[in-house]
Write a structure and sequence with these properties.
The longest helix has 23 residues. It contains 4 helices and 5 strands, in the order H-H-E-E-E-H-E-H-E. Strand 2 and strand 3 form a beta hairpin. With 161 residues, it is α/β, with parallel strands linked by helices. A 5-stranded mixed β-sheet has the order 3-2-1-4-5, with helices on one face. The protein is elongated, with a radius of gyration of 33 Å.
Length: 161
């Protein structure tokens, strides 16, 4: 004959009823969590903000002069200093001291002919007149800020020895 669920439960010991109840609650909870969970979002393609340098070709290391002959470097040339970033005017070798935040505008203002090796700059560090700890810290800070700025601009750098 057909027994009702209530009659089946009366025949089971209390600990088995509690175990069945916990199992059912766990199954319901897991089912709810699975139903509510979203698939992991697909990683977004990194989109860069236009910098004004996109028209400059990618760097071409085969065109770089050798390290022994960096005096003939034709791309932008930057010198990390404790008081800012030296931007070397290659036409007359004058150094214009800029703040790091002025570098993007300076690089963008250059004609495409100033980039014969592609989107790469030569970077070197000035030897400080005062080798104190604060001066060394200022050099490290300016170098780090410059490298971060160049990365944001998608401009590679070649370090002069």
């Amino acid at each position: 004959m057909r027994k009702h669920l209530r009659d089946h439960l009366r025949d089971l010991p209390q600990n088995q009823i509690a175990s069945v109840g916990r199992t059912m609650a766990t199954i319901i909870l897991l089912g709810s969590l699975i139903a509510c969970s979203k698939p992991a979002p697909a990683p977004e393609a990194e989109t860069r903000t236009p910098t004004g340098l996109e028209s400059i070709a990618a760097p071409d290391p085969s065109k770089y002069p050798s390290f022994r002959n960096l005096g003939v470097w034709k791309n932008p040339y930057l010198v990390v200093r404790e008081d800012g970033i030296g931007f070397v005017d290659l036409s007359n070798r004058e150094v214009h001291i800029l703040k790091v935040e002025e570098i993007p505008a300076e690089l963008v203002s250059l004609p495409s002919s100033a980039w014969p090796y592609g989107r790469v700059v030569l970077m070197t560090q000035a030897v400080p007149k005062d080798a104190s700890d604060p001066t060394k810290a200022a050099l490290r800070k300016n170098r780090a800020l410059l490298i971060g700025t160049l990365k944001e601009l998608d401009v590679q750098f070649q370090e002069a020895p």
